[in-house]
Amino acid sequence: MKMSLMKKLSVVFLLTVLGAILIAGFVSNYMVGKEFNNYLVDEHKDKVNKIIVTAQDLYNDKTGFTNSNKDELLRYAVLEELYIQVKDISGNIIFDSGNSHLQHKNMMESMMGNMMQSGMGKYSNMSAGEYKEETHPLVKDKKNIGMIVVGYFGTSYLSQGALTFKMTLNHSFILSGFIALIFGLGISFILARQLTNPLVKITKTANEMRKGDLTVRSEIRTKTREIEELSASINYLAETLQNQEMLRKRMTSDMAHEIRTPLTTLKTHVEALLDGIWEPTEERLQSFYDEIERLTSLVDNLRNLAKLEQADSKLNKTKFNLSSELEKIILSFEPLYSKDSHTIMSNIDKNVWVYMDKDKLKQIMHNLLSNGYKYLKPQGKVVVELKKEREGICIKVQDNGIGIPEKDIPYIFERFYRTDLSRNKNTGGSGIGLTITKSLVESHGGKISVESKEEEGSTFMVQFPK
Ligand code: ADP
Asked: Atom 21 of ligand 1 has which residue's CA nearest to it?
């Protein structure tokens, strides 16, 4: 059976409080009760001792037991609800507080009955208990002078005061238990609410996200770290989904645009040929070819991307000198750069050896250097840097080109993402190059990042671990 968190927490708290109260109640009741009983038993012994001493005082060496002080024994017997009988050495009864102990018993029982009937509910659980008699020898000056019998009921040594004390103790245990229970109930309710309220709010936000509203954010105030983290994660998720949604929409329209432009050009040109408006000159056919080439490379890139994203894209790693490999790549780009009066320079640490997939490295550098070239301003400059660092190696490709607007920086590694600047420049790019570069770098366990300022240029940094 599924139970709400609030209910569950409340029940658990309540059971804990209840358990704690019961255990504390029983233990303290037992301990206090035991001590108290010991105290009462001692008190009873004192009482009996006093009676023995009193009885011994009745004895006179010359006259034996005299009658003079028997009143005191009688007073004891009545006051302490005891049966007292004193016998001399030859067994003659010297003193008897009642006619017989049985009579005494009956008297006690009828006394109890009266108390209960008179509505003294407080003492209703006081039972007469079993009748007991103790016999003690009477000794004076080391001489046996007789016997004393003290009779009482099991509980009769519990005076009314003692009973009241025990009762009050029990009542205070019950009362404090009750108060603790109410207190615990209140606290558990507050605590459970404090925990569940934010969770309910977060669930509501998540449900709204599920329904498609990605603009909602969970705004809760809580001092519980885990709940705050959950709320932050939900917000992060919403943000990511919102970005993905935006990218998806942008990608669809970008894709349509990328494919439609060459197709439209081809279509109008072929129509013009068909209508006889245009002659199929070599120059025109070449431009057809270029458009078809663009479409083909777009499709190729798409296919490469799909291949790359199959996680197990295999790396063919070998050990090679990265420094000289980079020099070679830069050299191969020089004609292209100098054709447009751009410069490409290098600042490369010598003899850096790596264990990597050489072809993939070439592709990474090719993508970065063609981008650098594509987005340069007239007479621009690109610098390639290779540094061996403690944590690994770092390759930087720095250009002083058109730069990337700040708002676009987080997205340029997404597929088909192109900044408006690059669109205006009409470079014929498709927004896939950096996506491929990023997955190639990551497949080697590396990281790629960019720093850029519009109109000033960009620096792409690739870091590979050792
Ligand atoms: P593209 O084929 O459009 O160059 P990329 O994935 O290589 O695709 O790049 C994505 C976008 O990032 C580019 O369209 C461009 O807007 C921006 N970009 C990439 N490199 C640079 C750079 N060196 N300078 C300025 N913008 C760049």
From this structure: 371
> What residue ranges do the domains of the chain occupy?
5-179, 212-255, 315-465
pLDDT of residue 413: 92
Mean pLDDT, rounded, for 216-230: 90
Q: How far is the CA of 373 from the centre of ligand 1 (A)?
A: 10
Q: Give the model's pLDDT for residue 306.
A: 75
Distance CA 375, CA 371 (A): 6
Token code pair at residue 93: 């009864």
pLDDT for 105-128, tens place per residue? Answer: 555 555 544 444 443 333 333 445
What are the tens digits of pLDDT across the range 132-169? 888 998 888 888 888 888 888 765 455 667 778 778 88
High-pLDDT (> 90) share of the chain, %: 33
CATH fold, domain 315-465, is Heat Shock Protein 90 (3.30.565)
Query: Is residue 402 over pLDDT 90?
Result: yes
Q: Amino acid letter at 301? A: N
By C-alpha distance, which of 373, 355, 387 is closest to 422? 373
Alpha-carbon distances, residue 23 vs 11, 29, 60, 165 (angstroms): 18, 10, 58, 21
More confident of the two residues 121 and 288: 288
List pocket residues of ligand 1, CB cut-off 6 Å: 371-372, 374-375, 399, 401-404, 412, 417-419, 422, 429-435, 458
Ligand 1 centre from 312 Cα, in Å? 26
CATH class of the 5-179 domain in this structure: alpha beta
Separation of CA 188 and ligand 1 centre (Å): 58
Q: How many residues make up the chain in this entry? A: 466
**If you average pLDDT over every residue of the chain, what do you get?**
83
pTM: 0.53
Which mutation among 305, 374, 439 tests ligand 1's pocket best, with the greatest number of atoms within 8 A of CB? 374
Ligand 1, atom 25: closest residue by C-alpha: 403
**Ligand 1 centroid – CA 448 distance (Å):** 14
C-alpha 418 to ligand 1 mean position (Å): 6
